[in-house]
Automatic annotation (TrEMBL):
Signal peptide: none
Keyword entries, A-Z: GTP-binding, Initiation factor, Mitochondrion, Nucleotide-binding, Protein biosynthesis, Transit peptide
Name this polypeptide is given: Translation initiation factor IF-2, mitochondrial
Residues covered by the Tr-type G domain: 70-240
Portion of the full sequence shown: 95 to 605 of 713
UniProt source species: Alosa alosa
């Protein structure tokens, strides 16, 4: 029962940060402990960060090798500006349009499929430039199997050519070289290949394994050779995927289409997408209403490496976002809700960590200050204390009572003689390091409790400790009126015990 759990938790030395619900420790119990122990709000909030069960969809484990079947390569075209990427994509797309029935429309949807006369297929991503590629790589969702590096034969290797090579290397994606604009009289493909040697792109004729195809994107020359080279490389790469089970894919483009409404183009990476499938991507989900290919033909399903247009999103996910199929709409809602929650909590946690770092810093500087004080004379101590008080008073009241100050207990120490006050200070300083909760001696001195002591305590919300001193009636009344605790002791260790208890009660409870 909950009382039992509460007791047990309070008596174990577990950090509240580490509390996570499991079969034995339910969320409601942690909440109850947080409530009962009167933990400070921010700690309670921190505890809550971890108490919700992770409802996200997990990536599926690697498929059974027996279930794997070959899939077409997914290709990205990269290269320097004006070297002919767009022209090459257009020409490749046209090779398909010609093969299609009259009336076929070519439109840009972010990806398209090229089918060779042999029946082999290649999916091209046609997001111009490498912005999309970079965005996807940053999200760790690399869909590209092969990069076709376009270099204009008249221009040669340029800045973005080198950038593309670096990106390919970093992502471990193999390159095929398309030496473009070979129709131009000043074209010098040999020079291009020589230049590339300096960047570790070694073409076959130089003993390397990079295939180089001389093309003219504009005239459509050698495009089939380029496609063949791609298929050959794909065979070497042995690209495979499991077409069964839950679908996984990546958004390559999101847009609002005049006819279809909100639509995304996605590359399927695993499984098969069907009408009626339920998908999640980022913080949105879809019940697939329609699937289209790049020519707007309705599909009933699509398997690995296909580029499909998906209609049915509640809100559009962004390019680069992973798509995962889930069992039900309810599950999709749950995942999205969890992701929203997790994002919120991440933000909260960052804030929390910032607060804690500030607090640690504060305590650390305080500890150092204490340490140095321990070696100081009475007079030096006084001086240090006044400086510290001045600094405190200079802070705005909101800062003073702010989060970073919550764990300090301001103290006023009075004793009958120098020696006793000094002895108490020394003991306190030696204890200080052991407590997360810092003592803050805002005033100390010799003699009975005075009006000034009460005022000090009120200003700093502190506690007055007196050793072998008195507080007369008017002073006691004043203290009561201002709610200033005055604790008088005649035995040092009792005073210290009392103080320790006070500190413990201020600590965020360790459970
Ligand atoms: P991108 O910036 O890499 O997409 O380059 P574009 O495809 O926009 O091409 C830039 C310019 O080069 C355009 O004027 C194209 O017509 C021209 N161009 C592209 N490919 C060829 C080619 O194979 N031969 C010739 N002569 N011009 C080309």
């Amino acid at each position: 029962d909950i009382d039992h759990v509460y007791e047990a938790l309070l008596n174990t030395e577990v950090d509240i940060d580490e509390l996570e619900p499991d079969a034995y420790l339910e969320e409601k119990w942690i909440k109850e402990v947080v409530k009962r122990s009167g933990m400070k709000y921010k700690y309670a909030r921190l505890a809550e960060v971890k108490v919700r069960e992770n409802k996200d969809v997990q990536r599926q484990p690697p498929a059974d090798p027996a279930a794997l079947v070959s899939r077409p390569p997914v290709v990205t075209i990269m290269g320097h500006v004006d070297h002919g990427k767009t022209t090459l994509l257009d020409s490749l797309r046209k090779t398909q349009v010609a093969a299609m029935e009259a009336g076929g429309i070519t439109q840009h949807i972010g990806a398209f499929l090229v089918q060779l006369p042999s029946g082999e297929k290649i999916t091209f991503l046609d997001t111009p430039g490498h912005a999309a590629f970079t965005a996807m790589r940053a999200r760790g969702a690399l869909v590209t199997d092969i990069i076709i590096l376009v270099v204009a034969a008249d221009d040669g290797v340029m800045n973005q050519t080198i950038e593309s090579i670096q990106l390919a290397k970093k992502s471990k994606v193999p390159i095929i070289l398309a030496v473009n604009k070979c129709d131009k009289p000043q074209a010098d493909p040999k020079r291009v290949k020589e230049q590339l040697l300096a960047h570790d792109i070694v073409c076959e004729e130089y003993g390397g394994d990079v295939q180089a195809i001389h093309v003219s994107a504009l005239k459509g020359d050698n495009l089939m050779e380029l496609a063949e080279a791609t298929v050959t490389l794909a065979e070497v790469l042995e690209l495979k995927a499991d077409p069964s089970g839950l679908m996984e894919g990546t958004v390559v483009e999101s847009r609002t289409d005049k006819g279809k409404g909100p639509v995304t183009t996605a590359i399927i990476q695993r499984g098969t997408i069907r009408r009626g499938s339920t998908l999640v991507a980022g913080k949105t989900w879809a019940k697939v209403r329609f699937l289209f290919d790049e020519n707007d033909r309705l599909l009933s399903e699509a398997g690995p490496s296909s580029a499909v247009q998906i209609v049915g999103w509640k809100e559009l996910p962004s390019a680069g976002e992973e798509i995962q199929e889930v069992e039900s709409e309810q599950r999709a809602r749950e995942v999205v809700e969890w992701r929203e929650y997790a994002e919120e909590q991440d933000k909260l946690k960052d804030e929390q960590q910032a607060i804690e770092a500030k607090q640690r810093e504060h305590q650390e500087s305080y500890r150092r200050e204490r340490e140095s004080l321990a070696h100081l004379s009475w007079r030096q101590r006084k001086a240090a204390m006044y400086r510290a008080n001045k600094h405190r008073m200079a802070q705005r009241p909101s800062e003073r009572s702010g989060d970073s100050e919550q764990l300090t207990v301001p103290l006023i120490i009075k004793g009958d003689v120098d020696g006793s006050v000094e002895a108490i200070l020394n003991i306190l300083e030696s204890y200080d390091a052991h407590y997360q909760c810092q003592m803050d001696i805002v005033h100390f001195g010799v003699g009975d409790i005075t009006e000034n002591d009460i005022n000090m305590a009120e200003t700093f919300s502190g506690i007055i400790y007196g050793f072998n001193v008195e507080a007369n009636k008017p002073i006691q009344q004043m203290a009561a009126k201002k709610s200033v605790p005055v604790k008088l002791h005649k035995i040092i260790y009792k005073l210290i015990d009392d103080l320790k208890e006070e500190l413990s009660s201020k600590l965020p409870p360790t459970i």
